[in-house]
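[Structure tokenization] protein backbone as discrete codes

[Encoding] learned vocabulary of local backbone shapes

[Begin record] amino acids and matching fold tokens:

___
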Amino acid sequence: LNMGFYPHTNAGILTFAEMEKLKNVNLSMGIMLEQMTVTLLNTVHRHAPSKVPSLRLEQLQWAGELGIPFTTGLLLGIGETECDRLVTLETIAALHQRWGHIQEVILQPYNPGKREQWQNNPFDLQKLPDLVRQAREILPPDIVIQIPPNLVPDPLFLLDCLAAGARDLGGIGIIDEVNPDYLHLHPDKLKEFLAVYGWELKPRLPVYQ
């Protein structure tokens, strides 16, 4: 707040009491559901006890009970199947239909980074526009689909994702703390690029209208 930001906290797994306290000093909160399949606990998530799908799902449920405007999303290309992705989207849709608190769903392609021990091939971006279309069909219309533009290095794929139904480009900063090897375009340059194709880039607050 002292820096002039409205807080949005993504703190990982919290207790119900912790979420209730943080609600008082955050406009919104979030956690990536990633994928609902437990098979990833034997591979990419085998050393990550906080990635148990039931624990992450519980966070989304508690946020709904507490009325916290919430962000979640899927991490793509970490060993899940196409069916797994649809199940995860359907799970998010069902939670929102009950509590109405999910503001946006991030479809985040996996891209290998220098700080990772686990190295896999990046997500096939050619599949991303079709997944956006599927997500738009599954998710309630008031959930916005977010695509991180720095993880879609080919701008034509970004345009395809917008045409398929994505409407949010996330936090566009100098450094992506989660993916520091993938820099964002300066917002002015991104705005100029999108304007050429008829899209207007506008800022928003952590809580949607």
Summary: Residues 90 and 181 are 31 Å apart (CA to CA). The chain has a mean pLDDT of 91. The longest strand covers residues 102-109.
